[in-house]
Every structure is written in structure tokens, then in C-alpha cells.
Design a protein that fits this description.
By secondary structure, the protein is an alpha/beta fold. It has 3 domains: about 70 residues, no CATH class; about 160 residues, P-loop containing nucleotide triphosphate hydrolases (Rossmann fold), CATH 3.40.50.300; about 160 residues, P-loop containing nucleotide triphosphate hydrolases (Rossmann fold, 3-Layer(aba) Sandwich). It contains 10 helices and 20 strands. The strands form 5 sheets. Strands 10-11-9-12-13-8-14 form a 7-stranded parallel sheet. A 6-stranded parallel sheet has the order 15-20-19-16-18-17, with helices on both faces. Strand 3 and strand 4 form a beta hairpin.
Amino acid sequence: MIEIKHYGKLIRNKEDLSDETIRTVQKGVIKNKQGRWQCIQCESPERADYYTYYSEPLHSEITYCRHCLQLGRMDTHNEVYIIDSHREISKADYHLDFQLSEQQTYASENVIRAIQTHEKLLLYAVTGAGKTEMMFAGIQYARQQGYNVAVISPRVDVVVEISARIAEAFSAENIDVLYQSQSQQYNGHFVVATVHQLYRFKHHFDVIFIDEVDAFPLSMDPLLMKTINSASVSTASHIYMTATPSRKLRSQFKPANIITLPARYHRRSLPVPTYRYLKFKPTKLQHQLLRLFQQQITNQRYTLVFFNHIEAMKAAFEIYAEHIPNLIYVHSEDALRFDKVTALREGRHPIVFTTTILERGFTMPHLDVIVLESQTYSTAALVQIAGRVGRKMQDTSGLVLYLHNGVSISMLCAKAQIKQMNTIGLQKGWLDA
């Protein structure tokens, strides 16, 4: 059994340490230079995140942070320990069953360049471009220098999928996979984690890959972006990856450090969405919709049907479950969602009702998508949903259907973005005509 070293981490219990060097010892919550409470773990600046009460046993007031409480209590009474970081060189040999495409090689070379020059880089890559594989040479270079590497995502589902692919390729590496129900097993030199897990690390990582940087909650929480910086050394390189970067995100990079990748690894065009009018009524059986589902089953296609509201999805499920065999639904609060997704991959459910929990990080062949009330979705969400289709070599096309009650600007922009990427891919010679 490997003895875990907590390098570069914030530790609450000194008994967890062996021979690691303690960098600093301080209370979990302190007063900063402006006289405001500051949590050592999450560094929240919000006054509402701190609660003060009087402790009778200690005969004193105690203030604790409520923002990151589920990761371990930080307060003004108990001391916490920040451990010195440590580097360790690794061969980081990896295996791929295929050669990188010209586009993937181009991206991979730019990743290595950014790591060498300690810069940040944005990979603006279409869904299915093979972003995971584009990281591998950069990870190998970094680990061969002894750099500490993290691959992070805002979404647990994405971390589960991407960690499996990385572990398979880097089979000889000790990789810590960290999320809510998964704890550290090695020494934190190579980590795949949800972004919240970086609260536990302080000035430790030399290279951080941020997958799906525009996904909730990272896109909505400036504190999480600050956490990435707090977990990094001062010379760290950050590699951001997404198919739908916002204008604000793009403005933070030098033009030379925005790498546009318009093609999928299999050199086939992205499926272009089609529109169809349907005034969706969740509490009523709509025969037009039922016939569409039945035709999908007849065509032997798996179909994700996207809903914008959980309650509407549940109401529709009660009606259509009587007519569609093995129909299931899944959402972020579903305790069985991982089991359901596994069952979908195994081919047990031809039709799945889902929220945007499956808009990212999900891949399987023979998959189509139908979006109900698509006029209510953002452009980014519609592009990501469309990106579930045609990702596999054995199935490079499929149906992307936006059902709507009036075409929205977001729908038009999503379709235009997808067609533009196909055009750029053809112009660069990275797509087959």
C-alpha cells in the first residue's frame, strides 16, 4: 500500500502527515489586510459566507466559512497546515491506438509550446475534436520535467469519463482521480479532478488543463477561477479547452494563443441542426412527438431528448412511458444517474429524457438528439447538445433536431457556428469534402 504524501495541500489533521514539510500553520479563517474574514481554503470575499456564534465550552466567539463547508470546516479556532509542494519526474509513457490527425498534432505542439513558455492557451475545439488526446504529449512533457499536472472540469460526469480515458492511456502512472466520492490515493503529482477539489491545493500545480471551461458552475463563479490560480505556482501554464468559448474568455488571450480546431478527428463534418415547429405540452400526449420517438426506435437509433425543466420532463415521462419501451429520464439530482448512463451505453434504453446534464462529456455511437423548446436554450448549450451526435468513427452523422415554438437568435447562432466550423475545416484541409 502506497503511503500518501499530501504535497501542496491544505490539511486539517496533522496526524495525516508523515515526513512532509509544513509551509505554514494558521487558523482556517483569518482577518485579511482589509479587516474582512478570509477562508484559507476557498478564499471567499463574501461577508454572507461567514457565520459567527458564541461557543460556551470555549468561552469565545467562533467564525466559520459556510461556502466550502462540505470540503472540511474552516474556522477561527482550529489550525490548518499548508504543506510544501514537491516535484517528482516521471517517464509518463502513454499508449494510443491511433495516430493523431494533422489538426490534433498542431494542437498538441501548441500545448507543449505553452508549457515551455509558461503561458496560457485556449483550445477552441469543436466537440469530438479529440481534445483529450491533444493533451497527452503535453502531459508527458510536463511530467518528464517533474511538473505537477492537473486536468480539471466543472462537471463530475466529465471527470469520470475523461479520467478513464487518461488512466487507460497512461497505464503506468499514479493518477489521483478526485471528486465528491473519490479521495486521494497517491501523491498529487498527476491529478484529474472537479474544479472544487482544487480548494485543497495551494501553489502546487505547474500545469492545469481546464476542460469545458465555460460549463456551469465554473462559468458563473469567479471564485472558482481564482481557485485555479491559488492552486498554481506563479509560473504555471493554464490550458483552457472548450467548443463554446464566450467573447469575454477569448478576450483574455493573445491571438496567437487561441488555437481554433474546427474538425473532428475522423475528418467528417459536424452534423448541422434542423428546425421543426412544435408547441410542446408536457402534460399531454402529442402524437407528432410520439411518432417521432417510434421512428427513432424503428431506425435503431439511440436518442437523447433534452428538456429545459426537470418538472416538465417528469410530467412528460409519466405520459410517454406507457408508449415507449424502457424509457428513462436522468438529471443532475438523480442519485442513479451514473447507473442510468451506463445502461444507456449498454443499449438498454433507446430513448432517454434528459436535462442539460448530458450536454457535455457524453459519447456513444448511433446517437441522435432532439431538443424540446429549443428557443429557450443558449447558443452554447445548443452547440454542445448538437456535439453529442456523430462523434464515433463508425457513426459520423445523425439527427440534430431543434423543436421550437418560434426560432430564436440562439438557434440561428448555433447553426451558423456549426456551419462556420465546417467551412473552416474544409478550407484548412482538415475535413474530407
